[in-house]
Amino acid sequence: MSLTVALSKGKLLAGAEALFRRARLPFPEDPGRRLVVALDGLRFLFVKDMDVPTYVEYGVADCGVAGRDVLLETGSDVYEPLDLLFGRCRLVVARPRGEAADTRSSTLRVATKYARVTSAHFLERGVSVEVVRLAGSVELAPGLGLSDCIVDVVETGRTLEENGLVVVEEVASSSARLVVNRASFHARREEVGRLVDTLSGARS
Amino acid sequence: MNGPSHRLVQVPPGVQCFVGAEARRRRRIEETVVSAFEGWDYEEIIPPLFDYADVFASPGLAARTYSFVGRDGSLLALRPDFTSLLAKIAAGRLADRPAPIRLYYSGEVLRYEPPKAGRQSELFQMGLEHLGGPRAPADAEILAVAGECLESLGITGWVLALGHVGAFHGLVRALGLPQTVADLVSERVEAKDAEGVRAALSAHGASGEVAEALVGLSALAGDRGALAEGARALACCPDAARAVAELREVADALEVAGLGGHVAIDLGEVRGLDYYTGLVFRVYAPGLGFEVGGGGRYDTLLARFGRPMPAVGFMLGLDRLALLLERQQALPPGEAVAADRVDGEALGAALAVARETRASGRRVRFDAGAKEAR
User: Fold this and answer.
1) Closest among B220, B106, B243, B233 to B170, alpha carbons compared
2) Smallest Cα–Cα separation from B163: which of B226, B236, B235?
3) Which is it for strands B263-266 and B221-222: parallel, antiparallel or unpaired?
4) Do B80 and B199 share a domain, yes or no?
5) Is B203 near chain A, with CB under 8 Å?
6) What is the pLDDT of residues B281-330, one digit of tens each?
7) Looking at the complex, does the CB of residue B285 fall below 8 Å from at least one CB of chain A?
8) What are phi and psi of B372, to 5 degrees?
9) Which residues of chain B neighbour A177 with C-beta distances below 8 Å?
């Protein structure tokens, strides 16, 4: 039985492909619309980035590539043995430029895709927040009056800037991680161990 | 929409209902496991469904307990696990029994689980506790019993992943880490994220040989070679080294007894730290992404109930075993034996025939009067 690898078609795909190619591991040429691709002893699943940890946690995939930001949000019970050193970004709090920070004592409204991380972050600081959960284009929220600030990932910071936002605080830093299912790690030790070692040696 | 409200049709999330073949299969799994427990001379105990909430007051469990106020105003809780109950009974009702005491149970526990696919609130657990016995023999015994359960269920490729919380505890104590840092580190060790452990330790200003050993702890996993490696890597910390030596004693015994092929070592297994004091283990098998059961040593729990003694135990989840057996296409048959149909116009005569059939040990479908009903 071949190992199953869960990947997202999102921003980590190019980095994952480069890594697998450097490691001389099979990687689908162009999956197109196919969601499951079997190739030379590996089986690839292409799923939403937020779903990668879930597929791995339940053992549908033996391993996968997921951002640390996504792992923080899903809180999935998986092993994260390797920092794959690509897809680096920061999870930050950003608010409209020029607006004084924390002038209000009432509940802060925060728009984000990362509801769990956001709640935990502000809880730790003793700030009461109302989390406005969005699926995308989070940067728009403060300008349109939907929220006071946002929690989102930034790579270069350009999108924030274009929407009149500035970073006020870093919540966490992130990069792509190799995640491994707990049962596969132990019950398929040799195959999984080989894959981890191969990928570890191919990191740049 | 008309018709009865959904409350009268569906069961609430987290509980389940089993009928016919499915129920029969579960019963067969239970019988197989229980017969292994009986075979190793464990005694069945049927504890109460609820008890005073104080009994279940361990930090991890209290938040997940369904509790309610009894008629006399005392706070009660539906049992969220069996171990605390058995510890209480062993220390109380069975106070005069000399150790070691071997007990097993089979039944439901109820735990509040946050809504998440596949998580049930009502779990059927089968497990045993070995109380007051010598450490290594008791540890080895319960692992052998667990192995027999899996073997006799026809599960293939099962693995007992063994760890020892003493390794983690020893390193954390030697470094003098405050609880908040220790919690963060244990979460990263659990995730096998060595770099995350390093970051947490360096943020606290911990460095040196012992800190490096803690960074490397989660990588001490694999075959028995991980024990030799662990002995070397943890030599800098006597408590952690002792933990590895204890684990090795048990792993060696399993090897000699022919279970070596089913043993995996994982010194980064640090779940349930507030509870376990020595051996910890989880049972995995190909086909299921999470463990079907697990257990460990809890030498301090019995003192809470006034009879300090060492103890070790494990449990297997019936729901997970059924799922695993289904995935491995090894489910026990769910069909009932065919029944003899008994009918006839004269009710009394038909009933007499049915009773005779039963007396001969056969299964009866009593269909007298079936025509009238139609």
Assistant:
1) B243
2) B226
3) antiparallel
4) no
5) no
6) 999 999 999 999 999 999 999 999 999 999 999 999 999 999 999 999 99
7) yes
8) -60, -40
9) 193
Residue A178's nearest CA partner among A53, A58, A55, A75 is A53
ipTM score of complex:
0.88
Nearest to A59 among B158, B196, B290 (CB): B290
Do residues B168 and B248 share a domain? yes
Alpha-carbon dihedral angle through residues A160, A76, B195, A4, given to the nearest 10 degrees: -100
Domain count, chain B: 3
Instruction: Identify whether B2 is part of a domain.
Output: no
User: Which residues 6+ apart lie within 8 Å of A101 measured at CB?
Assistant: A95, A168
Reported in sequence order, the residue ranges of B186-292 that DSSP labels E, i.e. its strands, are 221-222, 263-266, 279-284
B224 and B254 in a single domain? The answer is yes
B324 & B368 share domain: no
**Of the candidates B149, B187, B154, which has an alpha carbon nearest to the alpha carbon of residue B168?**
B187
Q: Note the pLDDT tens digit of each residue in B163-182.
A: 999 999 999 999 999 999 99
* Residue B203 and residue B122 in one domain: no
Residues from chain B contacting residue A64 (CB–CB below 8 Å): none
Domain that holds residue B366: 340-373
Say if residue B30 is in the same domain as residue B118.
Answer: yes
Chain A contact for B222 (CB, 8 A cutoff): yes
The answer, for A21 touching chain B at a CB cutoff of 8 Å, is: no
